[in-house]
Amino acid sequence: MRRYRPDYQSIGISKYRFDELLAYCRQYPEKKAEAETLLGVSSPSLSGMPHGSGTGDPVARAAEKRERLLHDCEIIEKCAGMVDGGKYAVAVIQNACYGKGYEFIKEYLPTFHRESFFTARRKFYFLLNKCLELREKFAEWYEEMKQEGSKAI
What is the pLDDT of residues 63-107, one digit of tens each? Predict the structure, then answer.
């Protein structure tokens, strides 16, 4: 079955950027599940014998990874919550992240106006695009400051 390809050119999103945003959203369930599994990570037993060549704390690494995953999920949830005062948040997440079609998410919609849902979904992708662009710009700026040796960082 051919997948519907919405036209997001009007809000400044190319079809390739839309595919990237869609892939980011489709990772939401995986990121949630992985964050839950990382919650149970504990330190290895200390027997006094040398082990492994890795330096560092595996629990801290797991906690940092879990925080990154939860932050990605939070970006999606907040962008969905900002659309029309959060009325469409659950429906947009079900559609964008889990791939459920309009016909299967009617129970999550405040109104059954098809066009209002698709307008809300368009707003969601616009907000998500802006949030991710800002995050990328901040990461670039941060790396530049680190390379310059700024004392502020």
Answer: 899 999 999 999 999 999 999 888 999 999 999 999 998 888 888
Task: Say which residues have a Cβ less than 8 Å from residue 83's Cβ, sequence separation at least 6.
Answer: 89, 92, 120, 123, 124, 127
pTM: 0.81
Residue type, 49: M
Residue tagged 């005062």 (tokens) = 85
How many Å apart are CA 23 and CA 27, to the nearest integer? 6
Q: How many Cβ atoms sit within 10 Å of the Cβ of residue 59? A: 13
- Crossing angle of helices 15-26 and 89-98, rounded to 10°: 100
The 10 Å Cβ neighbour count of residue 111 is 10
